[in-house]
Amino acid sequence: MILRLNLKSLISSFSSFLPAATMSSATGTSQLQQQLNYRGTARVQPVDGSHSEEVYEPATGRVMGKFLFSGEKEVDLAVQSAKAAFKIWSQKSGMERSRVLLEAARIIRERRDEIATMETINNGKSIFEARIDVDISWQSLEYYAGLAGAIAGQHVQLPGGTFAYTRREALGVCFGIGAWNYPFQIACWKAAPALACGNAMIYKPSPLTPISVLMLAEIFTEAGVPSGLFSVVQGGADTGRFLCQHPGVAKISFTGSVPTGIKIMEMSAKGIKPLTLELGGKFPLIIFSDSVLENAVTGALMANFLTQGEVCCNGTRVFVQREILQAFTDEVVKRTQKIKIGDPLLEDTRMGALISRPHLERVLGFIKQAKEQGAKVLYGGDPYVPEDAKLTNGYFMRPCVLGNCRDDMTCVKEEIFGPVMSILPFDTEEEVLERANNTNFGLAGGVFTRDIQRAHRVVAGLQAGMCFINNYNISPVELPFGGYKMSGFGRENGQAAMEYYSQLKTVCVEMGDVESVF
Ligand SMILES: NC(=O)C1=CN([C@@H]2O[C@H](COP(=O)(O)OP(=O)(O)OC[C@H]3O[C@@H](n4cnc5c(N)ncnc54)[C@H](O)[C@@H]3O)[C@@H](O)[C@H]2O)C=CC1
Ligand SMILES: C[N+](C)(C)CCCC(=O)O
Questions:
Q1: Residue 130: which of 32, 27, 199, 228 has the closest Cα?
Q2: Are 179 and 312 in contact (CB under 8 A)?
Q3: How far apart are alpha carbons 356 and 358 in whole angstroms?
Q4: Segment 462-474, tens digit of pLDDT
Q5: What is the pLDDT of residue 26?
Q6: What positions does the domain Aldehyde dehydrogenase occupy (predicted)?
Q7: In 3-state terms, what secondary structure has residue 300?
Q8: For the chain, which terminal residue's Cβ has fewer other Cβ atoms within 10 angstroms, N or C?
Q9: What secondary structure does DSSP assign to 393-431, as a single string?
Q10: Where would I find the H helices in 71-111?
Q11: Which-ligand-closest: CA of 53?
Q12: How confident is the model at residue 50 (pLDDT cuts 50, 70, 90)?
């Protein structure tokens, strides 16, 4: 039975993929049988490749299938077809592009549950969260559809009737490199502004989560983009390198780890290619004693436990003013204990499985080290084995709250990328700001307080691109999102992203004779 995820047959596809009537209890049944590259208007088997790798279902540890890592010839074919599509797409008006993006957003909305189900099966996050991710995804397409028609230049009057105008032009073929934590959403955050500006995009998802982006490719085709405008090339570091170094690629946008970001920046430097880097880190959430305690506790859970803690902007260093340390900690532990872990396709599950066995072990290793360095596990931090027999080999753990933490501990300095919250006491505003900024990372930060002046003063002092006051980790697509310091540069979302997917041309128009200096 062939797995079909293309548009017209999504319902039947899911009846072949998941038992139709029991979609919510279908963990452990999906098999991968379709090709995972997308070129032109169809799924294809890459023409060359280095080797095959397995795709896992994190909740069961089951292998869902295998796929080939694309080689240089496949990469070149994708670039050639993207270049052809770019010629057509970049000539369209913003309003024409807008209509196609709106149609794609509509289809995503219509297929919300199927996409979220796929994301849950391949990533391990709860279906509850996956649906939110899909909503943010179509909102991104809608938002940039709205901006596409507003792309405009300036007119500048010069002496003697001479004048100039500026044109905001597309860059060409953009290469998007995705991480495994938000597979569908990251693809949309990159594709939406890229396509709105008139570019083509080749997308390489993480090899751990290669599946859901194929649905996006098929949706773009159904919505009416030219053949080749959005391609999917599967693979790992080698495939990524071929694309970064390909002379036909005009821009790179990367979401992932700092070490890989450094390698990509080196490659983009060699080709002088514009680059957006959305990297991770270790971010501060500062809770003052005058906070509304319940909101601050909820904020800390939002900052640490979404998607099993595998979130680039998490506020994992939770600084709590000493007067409320005990009350806050007790409440956080109580609420963390209540998080329902288990089959991610069940409606009431709020924490699913981590992405892979090695990643789970790495996260547990951080907790072991934290204990050795003097931290106290106040809750969780151990593997979790659900009662359901089919989940026995899944990559589950209980979310972890660490007390007795110090700034010099590894768990406080390094990105764990798992559900591990470190609580750190502080006394004064000045002290906490200094400690909060004492890191090379700067993607996000948050503050909880009822004192409005202090709230604005503290976020003004935070060295981070995305700051929250009295909330954390919400992601309206209208807001620019990106890092300071080693967490990257460039912005995704918001109007700002349009600048990173376009370039400015100035046209100077002489209305008189040429005055020569010779
Ligand atoms: N900031 C964030 O959102 C993320 C941070 N991470 C962190 O990174 C750790 C490792 O996760 P990985 O998935 O291995 O992250 P990674 O940064 O190595 O991979 C991200 C993407 O880059 C690609 N890639 C890797 N090497 C490349 C190269 N030389 N040229 C071009 N593309 C390349 C990968 O195939 C993947 O699509 C995690 O445990 C976590 O700590 C991981 C994913 C997302
Ligand atoms: C959606 N949000 C804000 C929770 C995370 C998005 C950034 C990322 O980790 O890729």
A1: 27
A2: yes
A3: 6
A4: 999 999 999 999 9
A5: 81
A6: 52-507
A7: helix
A8: C
A9: TS--B--EEEES--TTSHHHHS---SSEEEEEEE--HHH
A10: 72-89, 94-110
A11: 1
A12: confident
